[in-house]
Amino acid sequence: MIKIMVDDTMCSFEGKCPDELTFDIPMTIGSHALRITHYGKIDSDQTLDVNNNILVDKHVEISKIWLDNIELKEELWEGEFFPVYNPDYVKDLKAKGIDLSYSIQPNLYLGHNGMWQLWFKYPVASWLIEKRHDTIARQLDPDFQSREDELNKVKLFFDSAPELGW
Predict the structure, then answer these.
(1) Which residues lie below 8 Å from residue 93, measured CB to CB, with a gap of 6+?
(2) Does residue 92 sit in the same domain as residue 134?
(3) Which of 19, 25, 29, 68 is positioned for an S-S bond with 124, CB 3.0–4.6 A?
C-alpha cells in the first residue's frame, strides 16, 4: 500500500501500488514536499530461502517522477527515505552489532514501511533551471569547457610570472 501526498495536506493517491500513477494537484509558488509512504508490509510479505536470502519482497521502487511534464533525473536521488523498521529486524541487526540509520539517502527502493520525501519548488521549471544551471550551461555551449580551460591557462601564466606585477 502507498500514500502520496504533497505538503501533508493534499493526498493525491492512497491504495494498492499500481505500476504508474498520474494526477493533478493545485500548487502555490514556493517550497513543497512530495511524500510517498509505503505501509502495510508484514513479515509474510517477504519470502526467504533456506539460507535467508530474499526470494520475494513486497516493496515500492520509484523509477520515474514527472512534475509539470518535466522528468526528474538526478533530482530523484535527493529524496530521503525514513524507514519504519520491523522490530525483529532491528533486534537481529543489533545482535550483530549493526546500527540502523534514521534515514537512507540516496534511495529509491522502499523495502521497509516508511516515508520517502523529496523537497521541490514550484514553479518546477524555474526550480530545475536553478538546480541544473551549471550542467545546462556546459551542455548548451560546446565551447564552454575549452574557453574555461584557456582562461585557467592564462591565469596560471600570470600567476607564475610575478615580474608582470599581477
Answers:
(1) 99, 100
(2) no
(3) 68
- In the chain, the number of structural domains is 2
130 and 86, same structural domain? no
Instruction: Please say whether the beta carbons of 114 and 38 come within 8 A.
Output: yes
Give the burial string for 5-39 (b: 16+ CB within 10 Å, else e). bbeeeeebeeeebeeeeeeeeebeeeebebbbbbe
pTM of the model: 0.76
Kindly report the backbone phi and psi dihedral angles of residue 108, in degrees, each rounded to the nearest multiple of 5, phi listed first: -120, 5
Per-residue pLDDT tens for 27-74? 999 999 999 999 999 988 989 899 988 899 899 999 999 999 999 999
> Given 86, 107, 122, which residue is the final one in a domain?
122
The domain in which residue 130 lies consists of 124-166
State whether 75 and 54 are in the same domain.
yes
* Euclidean distance between CA atoms 3 and 21, whole angstroms: 12
